C-alpha cells in the first residue's frame, strides 16, 4: 500500500497549463538548442570513431576508441539528465556495481576492456544519431508551429506599421473579401488575434508532445522501470498454511447388492 502511494506521488513529467507553465518555455529552449547540439554530438562521435580506427595500427586508436565509448555514454547521460531537469522528474536510483577487489592489480588497459559493453556502445551510438535526426526534425516543427501562431497575433501590428510607413494594405485582398464579409479593420484584428492565440496554444501542446517523444527515444524512464517496488512485509509473510488437524475424507464403500438368503427345507 505504501509503495503504491509513493509511486502515485512521483511526478510523471506531464505538463499542464502549457501557456503559463515554465516547463513549456524550458522545452522550447531545449528544442532550439537541439539542432546545434545534435550536430556537435554527431561530429564528435564520427570524428572520434574514424580517428580511433585510423590510428589502431600504432596502438593509439585503441585507447582513443575506449575514450570515445566513455564520451558517448556521457553524452547520453547528459541528455537524459537535462530532460529530467526540464520535466521535473526525480533523479534515478544510483547503482553501485563497482568492485575494487576485482580490479585490483590490473592496469588501465585491462580495466577499460573489462568495463566495455558492446551492446551499450551500439545503443549510445544509435541514440546520438537519433539525437541528430530528431534535433533537425523537432526544430523545424517547433519553429513552424510557433511562428504560425505568433504571426497571426502580430498581424495587426504589422498591418498598422505598413499602413503608416509604406501605405501598404496587406488586408486589402484578405479572406473576408472573397466571402463578401464587410468587416472593419478592428474586427479583423480581433479575429486574427483570436486565431493566433488558439494556434499558439496548439503549438505549445505540440512542443510538449515533441518533448515526450524525445523522452521515450532517449530511454529516460528506463531507470525507473528497472527499480521495481518491493512488496509490503505483511504480503510477504502471509502464506497459506494447511491445518494439521484436517481429517482425511472417509471413503465410503458403495453398497453391494444383498444376496438373497435361501432357507433349507
Automatic annotation (TrEMBL):
InterPro entries: Put_sensor_dom. The chain crosses the membrane at residues 24-44, 50-72, 132-162, 189-208. Residues 30-217 form the Putative sensor domain. Keywords: Membrane, Transmembrane, Transmembrane helix. It holds the Pfam family Sensor. The keyword Membrane applies. It comes from the Bacteria. This is Putative sensor domain-containing protein. It comes from Paenibacillus woosongensis.
Amino acid at each position: 500500500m505504501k509503495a503504491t502511494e509513493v509511486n502515485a506521488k512521483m511526478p510523471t513529467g506531464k505538463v499542464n497549463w502549457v501557456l503559463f507553465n515554465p516547463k513549456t518555455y524550458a522545452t522550447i529552449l531545449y528544442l532550439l538548442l537541439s539542432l546545434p547540439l545534435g550536430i556537435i554530438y554527431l561530429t564528435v562521435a564520427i570524428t572520434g570513431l574514424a580517428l580511433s580506427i585510423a590510428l589502431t595500427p600504432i596502438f593509439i586508436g585503441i585507447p582513443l576508441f575506449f575514450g570515445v565509448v566513455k564520451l558517448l555514454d556521457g553524452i547520453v547521460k547528459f541528455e537524459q539528465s537535462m530532460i529530467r531537469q526540464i520535466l521535473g522528474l526525480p533523479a534515478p536510483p544510483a547503482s553501485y556495481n563497482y568492485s575494487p577487489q576485482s580490479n585490483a592489480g590490473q592496469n588501465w588497459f585491462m580495466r577499460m576492456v573489462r568495463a566495455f559493453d558492446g551492446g551499450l556502445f551500439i545503443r549510445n551510438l544509435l541514440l546520438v544519431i537519433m539525437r541528430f535526426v530528431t534535433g533537425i526534425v523537432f526544430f523545424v516543427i517547433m519553429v513552424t508551429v510557433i511562428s504560425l501562431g505568433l504571426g497571426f497575433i502580430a498581424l495587426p501590428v504589422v498591418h498598422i506599421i505598413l499602413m503608416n510607413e509604406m501605405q501598404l494594405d496587406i488586408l486589402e485582398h484578405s479572406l473576408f473579401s472573397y466571402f463578401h464579409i464587410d468587416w472593419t479593420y478592428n474586427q479583423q484584428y480581433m479575429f486574427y488575434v483570436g486565431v493566433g492565440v488558439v494556434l499558439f496554444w496548439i503549438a505549445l501542446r505540440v512542443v510538449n508532445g515533441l518533448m515526450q517523444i524525445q523522452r521515450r527515444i532517449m530511454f529516460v524512464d528506463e531507470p525507473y522501470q528497472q527499480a521495481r517496488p518491493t512488496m509490503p512485509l505483511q504480503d510477504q509473510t502471509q502464506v497459506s498454511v494447511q491445518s494439521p488437524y484436517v481429517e482425511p475424507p472417509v471413503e465410503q464403500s458403495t453398497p453391494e447388492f444383498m444376496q438373497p438368503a435361501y432357507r433349507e427345507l
